Amino acid sequence: MPWFAVAGIGFVTACFSSESIFYYLFESGIPLIFFLFQMRGSLGKDLESFKYLTVYMLFPAKELISGDAGAFWPCVVLALLRLVLSGVGCVYFWKREFSA
Q1: I need a surface site. Which of 52, 59, 67, 71 has the fewest CB within 10 A?
Q2: One-character DSSP codes across 27-42
Q3: What angle do CA 90, 32, 70 make, to 5 degrees?
Q4: Residues 4-15 pLDDT 10s
């Protein structure tokens, strides 16, 4: 489910970038930074604040496995984040002028 937000980041980056190098940089760089922050936040109490800097913290894996009903809302937030990012990318792409 966190791939919803990561895919939205990639799509909005592709719509805003005019050069493919910027798209590749952000499409691979931002999820990698999120992953590294998540790993760093799992190392101990001193570094726990890093895990709150990612979209991966919204994914309630343990709650989903246990069947907790409260796990629904973080998934909704991730889906809404994806829809907002995709919507912003679509609006910008439609208004974009391409040279002939």
Answers
A1: 67
A2: HHHHHHHHHHHHHHHT
A3: 75
A4: 678 888 888 888
